[in-house]
C-alpha cells in the first residue's frame, strides 16, 4: 500500500540524496543543487513552517518520494504542489497516481484548501500526464519562465479546485484500492 507519512529526522539524508539525482533535479526549478546546509534548513522549514507541509510517499516502510504543499498561509486558501519519486525503480508503477489521490485528499480535506496548483516544465511528460489524469487542468503556458542551468524553460501551469476533486475522488480512490495501491 502507498501512504503519505509525516517527515522524520532520518528522512533528511535520503531526501538530500534524491534531490541531487539528475532525474529529479532536472524537473525542479531550483537554481542549483542545494548545499548540505541549505538542504538542512529547507528540511527543518518543511517540518516547522506553517506555510509548508511535506510528506514522505512510502510503500510499506520503504520511502519512495516526497510531496510538498507550499504557500499554505495564503489568504486565498491555495497552495503550490511539488513532488518527486526518488528512484527510477519507483516511477511508472502507479505510486505517483496513488500519492496524488492521498495528497489531494490531504489538501482539500485536512488542510481545507480551495485550490492546488503546480508549475510543471513543459517537457515533463510524466508529470503532465500523471497530474492531468488526477484531474489537474491546464491553466496557462508560461514561456521561458524558469532558468535551469542557465537556460530558459517553458512551464505549464496546472490547477485543481476543491469542487472538482469532490467530483473525482470517489472513483479515483476506488480504482486505487481495487488495484491494492491504497487502503479502501
Ligand atoms: C512525476 C512522477 C511523480 C509521476 O509518478 P509515477 O509513479 O511515475 O506515475 P504513475 O506510474 O503513477 O503514472 C501516472 C500516470 O502518468 C503516466 N506516466 C507515468 N510516467 C510517464 C511518462 N514517462 N511519460 C508519459 N506518461 C507517464 C502513466 O501512464 C499514468 O497515466 P494514467 O493515470 O492515465 O494511467 C514521477 O514520474 C517522478 O518522480 N518524476 C521525476 C520528478 C518529477 O518530474 N517531479 C514532478 C515535478 S513537477
UniProtKB/TrEMBL annotation:
<dbReference type="Pfam" id="PF13302">
    <property type="entry name" value="Acetyltransf_3"/>
</dbReference>
<dbReference type="InterPro" id="IPR016181">
    <property type="entry name" value="Acyl_CoA_acyltransferase"/>
</dbReference>
<dbReference type="InterPro" id="IPR000182">
    <property type="entry name" value="GNAT_dom"/>
</dbReference>
<keyword id="KW-0012">Acyltransferase</keyword>
<feature type="domain" description="N-acetyltransferase">
    <location>
        <begin position="2"/>
        <end position="163"/>
    </location>
</feature>
<protein>
    <submittedName>
        <fullName>UDP-4-amino-4, 6-dideoxy-N-acetyl-beta-L-altrosamine N-acetyltransferase</fullName>
        <ecNumber>2.3.1.202</ecNumber>
    </submittedName>
</protein>
<dbReference type="InterPro" id="IPR020036">
    <property type="entry name" value="PseH"/>
</dbReference>
<keyword id="KW-0808">Transferase</keyword>
<dbReference type="InterPro" id="IPR051908">
    <property type="entry name" value="Ribosomal_N-acetyltransferase"/>
</dbReference>
<dbReference type="GO" id="GO:0016746">
    <property type="term" value="F:acyltransferase activity"/>
</dbReference>
